[in-house]
Amino acid sequence: xxxxxxxxxxxxxxxxxxxxxxxxxxxxxxxxxxxxxxxxxxxxxxxxxxxxxxxxxxxxxxxxxxxxxxxxxxxxxxxxxxxxxxxxxxxxxxxxxxxxxxxxxxxxxxxxxxxxxxxxxxxxxxxxxxxxxxxxxxxxxxxxxxxxxxxxxxxxxxxxxxxxxxxxxxxxxxxxxxxxxxxxxxxxxxxxx
Length: 193
Hints:
Blueprint: H1 20-41, H2 46-69, H3 73-96, H4 102-124, H5 133-150, H6 158-190
Helix pairs in contact: 1-2, 1-3, 2-3, 2-5, 3-4, 3-5, 4-6, 5-6
């Protein structure tokens, strides 16, 4: 008697939109406004912290699913968008409720928008500018800054979230400069401008 063959994992082509990874990413985008409202209502609550942690950790879930089922162009666009909406939205709300100073958040927003435009420009040239390890660390540190600010156990230790936010600013600016230098190197080697 032969054993039944294991069912193969579905694989999606690069132009697929409705993939498991994209569905997780879209869910993160759709749930983000709920989180922002919770933070605006009462900055530090366990419910907001739990939702923030869940949304931040699901970034790893959609990455895992994308690697398992195949990456897509839509996923390459949606995943960084969801990260930026989630982090920048939470940071802007924390500025709005006077928890964070506007300057570090403005520096982070300026870099994030600038690098998104930069990557879009190179994408139209057919060149990929993949995320660096430093940029991934930067995203984690930004997430910790928000988490420390909205967690009831750490909210009163304002120095903790503020220090983490400034570390995130430094990483944000350094990785932004690395992207620009990498882009120049790509165009020099390929001759595309």
